[in-house]
Structures are given as structure tokens and as C-alpha cells.
Amino acid sequence: MSTEPAYQPSSRRPIADIFRLTAHGAVRACLKLGISADAISYASMVAAAGAGACLLFAAQHRWLLLLAPVFLYLRLWLNMLDGMVALASGQASLRGEILNEVPDRISDVLVFAALAHSGLANPAAGYWAALAAVFTAYIGIFGQAVGVQREFSGLMSKQWRMVAVHLGAWTAWFLPTVPVLEWTCWLVVAGCVQTVAVRLQRILRALEEKKRHAKK
């Protein structure tokens, strides 16, 4: 029998305990049914595609603006669930960390590219938001790649990008003649700029701290 300790992720996204509580029953069900963390990660992309479809066709069927946030939050909930299942089942691994990140980036692009083609926002705004979201996540991972912490800091982390789109969608439903979702995309871009700056600053500070400790 192997005595090698189970892999533990070096960095985990901070999530309020109240939200984790909503997934405990689902974790037990996944373990009982043999549903893997990888499958849940892939399901999160399906949820993001559902949100994207709602946004893409919302100009013709405006009630979809009210439905899109359901899929946005389902995506986030599944993103939380996959990590919990991985740890509870002993499936956590370096491979799992990769498979956790790739669906997340695809999900961001699905949401913002859908906005770009929805007719409710300037296409440039949607694609800049998609690029900003991917780059923001890249900078966060970069900290871990250079040997310090994975950064989740800043105003426009993943969950707040989805909250921004949620608020934009519902506001656009109430104000159909105002380009609210276009403004939302530019708000996401601006927030991502701030977030990238904060993450880079924290990563560089951590590298300096690591360098000082190495000299002692």
C-alpha cells in the first residue's frame, strides 16, 4: 500500500463557507455516483454555453436576459463543486489543476463572445472583455508558475465578472434602449486592468520577499 500523501493544491480560490455549504450534498452524491471532478469541470463549460446562448439571442427574445444569470451562477457553482469533489475523492492532482483552468478560460470566452455577437453591445467591447478576462486569469496563474502564490485578488476576479454580466443583463432588460451590456463589457475591461495591476504588484512583492528569505 502506498504511503505517499495525497496531492493538495498549493492555492485555492477563497470562497465563503456559506457557498460551500450549498455543495456538500452534491459532493456526497458525486462520490456515490462516481462522477469525476473532470466531468464537473466540463459541465461548467456547458453552463457557460447556456449563458452565452441566452445572451446571444436576447435581442430577439429579451426574456433571455433574465435567464442568463441562472447559467452564469451555475457555472460558478460547478467551478466550486469540481474542486470540492476532487479533494473529497482524492482525485486532486497537477493534471486536475490544468483541467480546472482550461474550461474556465473557455467559459469566459463563451460568455463575452456571445455578447459581442448579440447585437446588444459593440463587438469590440465583447471581445476586449473576453481578452481581458483571459489575461487577468493568466496573470493570476503566472504567480504560481514562478514559484509564489496563485493570485485571486483584484476587483474583477472570475466571480465578479459574472456578477457584472448578471447586473448588466437585468439592467438591460429594464432599459431596452440603453446600451447597458456594452457599458458592462467596458466596465469588465477597466476592472480587469485594475486586477492585473494588483496581481502583478502582489506577485512581484512576493518574489522580493522570497528572495530576501533565500538570502538569510
Proportion in helices: over 70%
Radius of gyration: 19 Å
Question: What order do the SSEs take from the amino end to the carboxyl end, as H and E?
Answer: HHHHHHHH
CATH topological fold name: Four Helix Bundle (Hemerythrin (Met), subunit A)
Domain module tally: 1
CATH architecture: Up-down Bundle
How does the helix and strand content classify structurally?
A: mainly alpha
Number of strands: 0
Largest sheet: none
Give the averaged pLDDT, no decimals.
87
The shape is flat
Task: Provide a count of the helices.
Answer: 8
CATH superfamily: CDP-alcohol phosphotransferase transmembrane (TM) domain
Distance between the termini: 40 Å
Low-confidence stretches: 1-5
Please give a quick description of this structure.
With 216 residues, this protein is mainly α. The chain is built from eight helices and no strands.
Task: Give a quick set of tags describing it.
Four Helix Bundle (Hemerythrin (Met), subunit A); 216 residues; flat; single chain; mainly alpha
Helices, strands, pairings?
Blueprint: H1 17-21, H2 24-33, H3 37-56, H4 64-89, H5 94-116, H6 123-145, H7 158-174, H8 180-215
Helix pairs in contact: 2-4, 3-4, 3-5, 4-5, 4-7, 5-6, 6-8, 7-8
